[in-house]
Amino acid sequence: MTIERRSFPTPWSLGMFVLELSKASSICLAAIRGPRQVGYLICARYETIWHVMNVAVAPEWRRQGVAGALLGDLYSRIADPQARLTLEVRCSNQAAIRLYEREGFRGVGLRKRYYQDNGEDAVVMWRTPATLAGSLADVPNPEWS
Ligand SMILES: CC(C)(COP(=O)(O)OP(=O)(O)OC[C@H]1O[C@@H](n2cnc3c(N)ncnc32)[C@H](O)[C@@H]1OP(=O)(O)O)[C@@H](O)C(=O)NCCC(=O)NCCS
Predict the structure, then answer these.
(1) 141 alpha carbon to ligand 1 midpoint, in Å?
(2) Which residue has a Cα nearest atom 3 of ligand 1?
(3) 132 near 98, Cβ under 8 Å?
């Protein structure tokens, strides 16, 4: 909760974490460095699609590969080369967009006014066998090409 509150303008409540952590099909990962938790990732499964719901790293631990390591761990736990992953990210969040692009996610469209606190649009991103090969062929309803 401390990392969450330091990372987002509208942080998740404890109840939102409990809900996601209680789903048997979700993958919830903690990044531990020494005695401390320095980051986490929460990913929910909807049949064949994986939705990355939350990723955050404590400010003093950023740019040290923690989020990249969490995502790498996620792919190996999903253990399916055909897996399709999706997420939403604020248009202004260039750090996260760069991270996801480096990981093979591609922006495929916008969800207008997705964030209620400031009315900001979300970029919808997908990481699929096709995006990893440079196309959007297996992405549902892409707005962009
Ligand atoms: C986005 C976030 C999770 C990245 O975590 P991180 O552990 O710092 O990321 P990594 O160190 O694994 O970075 C991997 C790559 O992502 C890109 N990246 C990460 N932060 C960046 C930044 N501030 N500016 C530009 N590129 C960035 C870089 O390509 C980086 O590789 P490099 O350091 O070799 O250049 C972290 O900044 C954070 O917690 N932000 C607040 C919460 C948030 O926005 N979460 C995502 C919501 S969708």
Answers:
(1) 27
(2) 56
(3) no
- pTM (2 decimals)? 0.97
Cross-sheet strand order for the sheet of 106-111: 27-33, 36-46, 49-57, 84-90, 122-127, 106-111
**C-alpha distances out from residue 128 to 21, 85, 92, Å:** 24, 6, 24
What pLDDT digit, counting tens, does each position of 117-145 carry? 999 999 999 999 999 999 999 999 999 97
pLDDT tens sequence across 66-81: 999 999 999 999 999 9
**Domains observed in the chain:** 1-79 (3.40.630.30), 81-145 (3.40.630.30)
